[in-house]
Structures are given as structure tokens and as C-alpha cells.
């Protein structure tokens, strides 16, 4: 019987593990992607104490920190979460566990465009991770769809490889941090980045093997050799929903200031919750609060 099982191994989950072990709780983390989506982020420049660090390197440090305190970590997928007379049971692909409390930090997955050609050319020109696939597009003409800070940073990173990067955005102004906008404007002056505003992609075209162009809703066709999609994230909260945890209209876990959910003994942290500002540092902070709440709960 564990004191707490943390589902999800991103910044929130691993930070929760560090603190739950500091509180001497018997702790298990179960996650499919060690480090979460941050491992697919090229450069992190807003983590206190690290002026610039690769996302995977930052998460490796946090994982090692959690392990050093004695947190158990399993690379596995949770398939079922149930209430029991003693707490909760968690079933995975490989095993079954019992715990007094649960911290859900299951994070998010990338949202898809949902246009013709997206599925056909996934992995053959369509990508959701510039860090993972950018190197395959050296000296090519590519596009990034999306206008968030994440999308803009993807575009900037891709300029290290590509000959030309288009940013395609459905609105009239990018929603990135000022420092990212400054960097984009510099690349625009250099002719490396071009932003296409008020435009949607209606179809991804290719020859059956690789991408050739994008059909745009303005009736134009844009020749490209690769497309990176960064149009938002979808919370992974099927497990939370299955046990009766309340979600908002965005399918995010509703938590209070103590990271408590409406289900006694279940806590939420990170991007899968209804937090307003979703960043690695805020997710980590939520994980810490969730760990403290789990400690209070298991010792009450």
C-alpha cells in the first residue's frame, strides 16, 4: 500500500514526488513519457536558476532529484482508477497497485488540425514536435501553424535548420511573449520567417509519400516540405472523469487552492487542471501543493 501514487511524470508529477518523499510518504510515480511534453521543448529560458536549458535536460535533472529522495518511478500506462475501502486501486498495463491517495498530473496531448491529409502525412512531413523532427528539415521550406508562444518558439527553433519558415495563424496578432516577438521580428527582417495572418489551412497536399503544399482558405496554395502543428493542447483526464472528478467545459480538472478535487483523496496538478497560466514552473508549484495536501490527508 502506497501513501500516494502520482499519475503522470511531467514537471508537476515529478515535483510532487520530490515533496511527497520529503514528507516521508511512500511514493510511486507512473508515467508513459518521463519528463512529459517538456522533453519535446527545445530551449527553456524561464526556469529559475537556468538561463537556458534543453527541456529534456531540465526534466532529467528533476527526475534524478525525485529518485534521489527514494521515489519509485514506473514507465507504464494506467488503465483503471477505482475507489476501494482502503483508498484507491490503480491498474496498469503491467501491474496493479493500492494507495491511500492519488495525485493526477496526466498533462495534455497536442491538438490536431483535423483537415484532409493530416493523418496521411503524419510522420511524413506533418509533425507536432519541432525538437524531435526539426533536424530532418535542413534547408527546406516549412510552416508552423499556430500563434501561441509555444508555436512561435517552435518556429524560431526551426530556423536553425530550415531555409524558410512560414507561421500561419488564424488571427491578426501573435499571442507570444514580447521577447519571442522581438526574435521573430528579427528573423522576418532577415527573410527567414514570414507570418501569414487571418488564414486557415484547409488541406495538406502531397504525392503519397511526402508533403508538397498546403491549401489555404484564402484560395491559395502554399508550397512547403514540412508542417509543424502547434494549435493547443488537450487535457488527458479520462481517468479523472471515470472516478467522478469534476471537470470544467475545457475538460480540465477543477481544483481549489490546495490542489484538492471534489473526490476526497484525489488531487490534481499541472496542465490537466484548470490553472490559468500553464507553465512548467507553475505546474511544479501545483505538484508541490498537491503533495502537501496528500500528506495532510494521509495523516489526518
Cα separation of the termini: 17 Å
The chain-level mean pLDDT equals 95
| Portion in beta strands | 25-35%
CATH architecture of the largest domain: 3-Layer(bba) Sandwich
Total DSSP E strands? 19
CATH topology-level name of the largest domain: FAD/NAD(P)-binding domain
CATH homologous superfamily (4th level) name of the largest domain: FAD/NAD(P)-binding domain
Name the shape in a single word.
elongated
- Strand and helix order: EHEEEHEEEEEEHEHEHEEEEEEHEH
The secondary-structure class comes to alpha/beta
**Share in helix:** 25-40%
Query: How many domains, in number, for the residues?
Result: 2
Quickly name the level 1 CATH class of the largest domain: Alpha Beta
- Largest sheet, strands/sense/barrel: 7 strands, mixed
**Rg over alpha carbons:** 21 Å
| Total count of helical runs of at least 4 residues | 7
* Model regions low in confidence, pLDDT < 50 over at least 5 residues: none
Write the layout of secondary structure elements.
Elements: E1 2-7, H1 11-22, E2 27-31, E3 43-44, E4 53-54, H2 55-68, E5 72-75, E6 78-83, E7 88-92, E8 96-104, E9 108-110, E10 126-127, H3 130-133, E11 141-145, H4 149-158, E12 164-168, H5 178-189, E13 193-196, E14 201-206, E15 211-216, E16 221-223, E17 226-229, E18 233-235, H6 238-242, E19 266-268, H7 280-298
Amino acid at each position: 500500500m502506497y501513501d500516494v501514487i502520482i499519475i503522470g511524470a511531467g514537471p508537476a508529477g515529478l515535483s510532487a514526488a520530490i515533496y511527497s518523499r520529503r514528507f516521508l510518504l511512500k511514493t510511486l510515480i507512473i508515467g508513459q513519457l518521463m519528463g512529459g511534453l517538456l522533453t519535446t521543448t527545445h530551449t527553456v529560458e524561464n526556469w529559475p536558476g537556468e538561463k537556458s536549458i534543453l527541456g529534456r535536460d531540465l526534466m532529467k535533472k528533476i527526475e534524478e532529484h525525485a529518485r534521489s529522495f527514494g521515489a519509485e518511478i514506473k514507465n507504464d500506462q494506467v488503465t483503471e482508477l477505482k475507489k476501494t475501502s482502503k483508498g484507491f486501486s490503480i491498474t496498469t498495463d503491467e501491474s496493479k497497485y493500492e494507495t491511500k491517495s492519488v495525485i493526477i498530473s496526466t498533462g495534455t496531448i497536442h491538438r490536431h488540425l483535423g483537415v484532409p491529409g493530416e493523418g496521411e502525412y503524419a510522420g511524413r512531413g506533418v509533425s507536432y514536435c519541432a525538437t524531435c523532427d526539426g533536424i530532418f528539415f535542413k534547408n527546406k521550406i516549412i510552416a508552423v501553424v499556430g500563434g501561441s508562444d509555444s508555436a512561435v518558439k517552435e518556429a524560431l527553433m526551426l530556423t536553425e535548420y530550415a531555409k524558410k519558415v512560414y507561421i500561419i495563424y488564424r488571427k491578426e496578432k501573435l499571442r507570444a511573449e514580447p521577447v519571442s516577438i522581438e526574435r521573430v521580428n528579427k528573423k522576418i527582417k532577415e527573410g527567414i520567417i514570414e507570418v501569414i495572418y487571418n488564414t486557415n489551412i484547409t488541406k495538406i497536399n502531397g504525392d503519397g509519400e511526402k508533403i508538397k503544399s498546403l491549401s489555404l482558405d484564402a484560395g491559395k496554395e502554399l508550397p512547403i516540405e514540412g508542417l509543424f502543428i502547434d494549435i493547443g493542447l488537450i487535457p488527458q483526464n479520462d481517468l479523472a472523469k471515470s472516478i467522478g472528478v469534476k471537470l470544467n467545459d475545457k475538460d480540465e480538472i477543477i481544483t481549489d487552492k490546495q490542489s484538492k478535487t471534489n473526490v476526497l483523496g484525489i488531487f490534481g496538478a499541472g496542465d490537466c487542471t484548470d490553472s490559468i497560466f500553464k507553465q512548467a514552473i507553475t505546474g511544479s508549484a501545483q505538484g508541490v501543493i498537491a503533495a502537501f495536501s496528500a500528506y495532510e490527508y494521509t495523516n489526518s
